[in-house]
Amino acid sequence: MPAKSTKKLKVQIGLLAVAVVIIVFGLLFVLTAAEIVPVFPAFYKIGHIIVRYIIVIVTMSVGIMLFSNVAATIEDKKLRNALTIGITAFSTVLTLPLLYVFVALFPAASNLYGPVGEFMVKMVAVDFQAIFPKLGVQYLIYSLGIVMSIVFLAVPLLSGILTVKDKKLVIGKKGISIEAK
């Protein structure tokens, strides 16, 4: 058994390292997409800021999901819980501004930005208006963005809580239930 356990641990460490690298790239993409620091000049040159943020969202989602899934498989309960709580908090902190931006885009569609919106929302709103000139399409996309943000908040929180409490979500013919592992 120890050989299998050692191999599993090596795979877990490797996957966690890959997840951390993906997350670091995602954070660097955020800095570049927001035009704070042009870490990746080619990425910085992508014409539409929305395309840059889509790349950020996909990259961060992959890194966070990989980290979360690997953390949930760790046998040492204290380490598993610490990693799970850490990645859940990290994910939540990253997702709250995303939710804020999608909510703030509604008034921004009418050129109402507010003090924070000038910095966080204006470039995104202007880009959406250029790509999708019809207000109804913008509102549809903003609504879908809010739903996506809520899912990005709810799923990691639920997953983290279930992992820490040693429970699992079961979806079957009898409906949805939470059971012990």
UniProtKB/TrEMBL annotation:
Domain of life assignment:
Bacteria
Q: Does the keyword Transmembrane apply?
A: yes
Keyword Membrane listed? The answer is yes
Q: Which UniProt keyword terms apply here?
A: Membrane, Transmembrane, Transmembrane helix
Report TM segments.
Answer: 12-37, 49-70, 82-106, 139-164
Name the record gives this protein: Uncharacterized protein
| Source organism of this protein record | Candidatus Stercoripulliclostridium merdipullorum
* Organism phylogeny: Bacteria, Bacillati, Bacillota, Clostridia, Eubacteriales
